Fold each of these.
Amino acid sequence: MAITDDIDAVPVPNSPAGPDLSEIVAGFTVGAPIGPIPPLGKGLINDTFAVTTDSGRFVLQRVNQRVFPRAERIMSNLSVLTAHTAGTDGLRVPALIPAADGRPYLRTPAGDLWRLMELIADAVTLERISTAAQAAQVGRALGRFHRLTQDLAPDRLEFTLPGFHQTPDYMFRHVALRGQATWAADDASVHACTAFIDTHAPLAWVLEDALAAGRIPLRVTHGDPKIDNILFHRVDGRALALIDLDTVQPGLIQHDLGDCLRSCCNRGGESGPSGDTGAVRFDLDICEQILGAYFAETRDFLTAADLALCYDSIRLMPFELGLRFLNDHLERDRYFRVAYPGQNLHKATIQFALVASIEAQEAEIRAIIARGVGGE
């Protein structure tokens, strides 16, 4: 979902069986809606609509309570985050519009939770990074988010997705799945994936062990800092805002950084270039631009332990996602949406190939980290 004014959706009337969107908008303090309320963006989780009222343009969302069963926690976190970042320069958090009763959301008699947010003007999202300047803006946006929240006590936030990014839990689930008779024991691709997991199993505990030992702290994290969750100015290309903030919660910023690089530095995407795992490559040029801009924002508060874990964080996140894809394949695609049978298995092989590419370039990546930390 993109909170922008780049609205291409064809207006559609409200379904007779669906909610009356005009009535829902009227429950917020923004005046009367003008014209149709079309769907907005391509998000797969929440229902999102573009709203024009006599006082401006907004984004209306129904939070998916199957994914976020305690949706009030999300809204509490967003309220805390918005208040904490108010008046700061360089990165915006879309403002929440209060409902008529003063709460930052509206509950319908059907039990749905709706929210209304400002629509950021002149903003667009990108599907992929195509220039060095864009890569630098990604690093700047994530670094600025971590900078703006580094003095926000994480215990002020609720856990919206308990267990998210706790890689050992995905490992335990994988071991349990291996013990079930229904798994595809005769599938060569599954065997290749499980062999890769076996050789990399200790990696799953790297960050959790560091946290348990007190070497790194819990901080405020975005949780999903992909390229399409960053808004860019449509003219000058500046990063304006991080969006899709439902996963903001206490966590490890190493997960954020590793996941950002995982998604941005694999030019072929999660399905790979033409389905060819041999062509999967971790792009060092994009990595250097992102890390240089990220460390420019964060080097004065990151600790030596934070920096020592940077390389392992970069290879951990594709390993974790590959593990999750494989687990879902073995569980018959219960979590991730698939377009064809075996897609989750194929995506797992792509992520493990990305880990292998990272490890093949370890010396270069460590040198990039050192240059970024040093401000070279």
Amino acid sequence: MSTATETAPARKAAGGARRLRWPHYLIIASGLLVLLSLVRVIDDADPVTSSGTVSAALRLAVPIFLAGLGGLWSERSGVINIGLEGMMILGTWTGAWAGYQWGPWIGVLAGIIGGALGGLLHAVATVSFGVDHIVSGVAINILGLGLTQFLAGLIFDKGEAKALGGGPRQSPPVDPVQTLTLPVLSGGKVGDWQSPDWLGSLEKHHWFLVSDIAGIVRGLTSDMSLLTLVALLLVPASFFVLWRTAFGLRIRSCGEDPYAAESLGVQVYRMKYAAVMISGGFAGLAGAFLVTVAAPFYQDGQTNGRGFIGLAAMIFGNWRPGGLAAGSLLFGYTDAMNVRGGGQSVHALLLFVAILLIGVAVWQGVRANRLLPQAALDVAHRRDMRAAVVGSVLSLVAAAALLTWFLLSDLVPGELVSFTPHLTTLLVLALASQRLRMPAANGLRYRRGEAR
């Protein structure tokens, strides 16, 4: 089988629109950064782009996009994995159990194994026995939660573990993974020489754009956990394996048409098993991250729905690693606003989102105008034009509401601040739903030799 997966016509998205390339994404990111800096200056909300916020956003985003990568691997093979949350929970317990005894890196390895075992159970149920994927995933979520609660009370609340600080709902402390700070830029230490913190000095001036860039770069280069760096490298690694290797092509072919893959000699069962176990391993790694980086111990309820948010990030990213990482960073950033900035920072984001919605309204209006000559001749174009007009009007209404809220208030209530990440999840999925395309055979039951 050839590994060439994209032809020239495939570079166009649905509806004839050209797919965005890296230069387009860089231009969009630069424009968003300028707008964010402008909003920060207008509302005097320095935490919006501070290094502390960026560092917290990255730390909060990592377990989400690791869970999302797990969902990506599984669903690219045609198996829906709703059980990511349960596999993450297994990863937190096994990671903490091994971590407090033999060190954080052994804990990370144990977390991966714990999640992979959950993936194996899901593969046995869905691939071998044909159980409905949703039912199996929900069962694993329930099993992961109940099993870890039972094991925590059985092991962490007795003997040496209890003497070290364990209990029925938490483990003994786990040593953290080492951190890195880039010398010269962020005040790192080289031998006995302590370099000056140039980026920190620039950030404290609160200059337009310059201080924002300094804060973002400093947040990405100071006190970064080695496990965070490993997790970030897994995004391009997953893209390379899935889209640039024969193994990845075979997995994706199972998710698009397993019977066609079978006719070409692909071992579909084997590929699905491998993908779902890798999926569980990613979820387990996300759980191990929570007990070795985000917090120094296992605690009941620690995942807090991150497995489901990871699934949302995967859908937002259209089942691709790059979009998945961007969606995870978005969710992590809004969560960091709750932790670092509170009501004032979220208040500044009201203006940011209002301006974005105005831009969306203008773009939809231009799109409707372009479709107008063809709408009179073609029903499909007429429907697209109506959707563009409705989208433009709704975006303007939402922008007006947010702008009014921004002008009439100084802070966003704390209850809404804590709900911001979940609200962002719902809004992003609603806005992204029209351009999504899941693998064609995702969630379908496969049996060898049943091709028609």
Amino acid sequence: MPLPEPTPAAVPATHRQVLLAARPEDTLTTDHFEVTTAPVPEPGPGQVLVRNRLMNVAAVMRPLTIADPDSFALTQLLQRPGNPMHGPAIGEVVTAAPGTDLAPGELVRHRLGWREYAVVDAAEAERLSPGALPDPAAYLSQGFAAWLGVVRGAEVRDGDTVFVSGAAGGVGTLAGQFARLHGAARVIGSTGSPRKAEYLVKELGYDAAVVRGAGPIEDQLREAAPDGIDALFDNVGGEQLLAALAVARRGARFALVGALSAQLTGDAMATVPISTFDLIARGITLRGTAAFDHMDAYPQYEREFGRALSEGTMTYPHTRLRGVEQAPRALCELVEGRHVGAVLVEL
């Protein structure tokens, strides 16, 4: 699907942006955000003004209540009250100040979404390769995290039985498809409702799904994988990680990609009790997998993802809402589990 049609080159005096009004202590609601009007900023040396066209919302953007924010390991993800929200966006360069190699009209990706216009340091504005992905929206997918977890984290191999936790989200819907492309013989996903479980099996090619709240995850997983699992792509942590450990085969490989069970409660640093002796005895590998450690692999991922989308061997499930004022609702609905796949907002 193409991006929204560009507006005329004239830059308005003001634009809309979304501020974080307060961090939630429990349930996230739209009252935690404020849509405001502000002057369109002007780029300084080495900067560009970008007209944002499309932005992504993801569960990792949920504002977190953290006792000591300055000690948080992933400070680039921390949303601060009183400031505009931030997250991945794509848009076209409107104005390029001296000292940049970008030109007006070029499409770029950056991390200053949640606003209609953004001043971005040229070094932080990634020029997008025309045609590398058949749908420009796919540049906002979480496909790189999905690919890394499958290929480098869990090292999925021919014949593997793979469990993907949080399989109906923006990462999980792609991780299961990548696992299949890389030889998995059986792919099992977890999700929060029977409706989503049916979607995983009927639309995305999962062999089985376990449903949160439909009984102990471990019991459901044992039934879905009676011979155990060889690899885990973990978006969630918590009970689902412990269930995967309980049914893992010797030598299983676990990619830890997300921690939704902790993040969605506001405590991103919540711990999970794990027996290290058991890991050693069964030769299980747990590997934290983050994109910033593997940027050398991005070109390989983009080629594989683009080819799979073009050939129809993969799809990019996503929902679109229109207007920056819809971004708070989009994030709240995502956190509540209302959507399958990625959630994008057209600006």
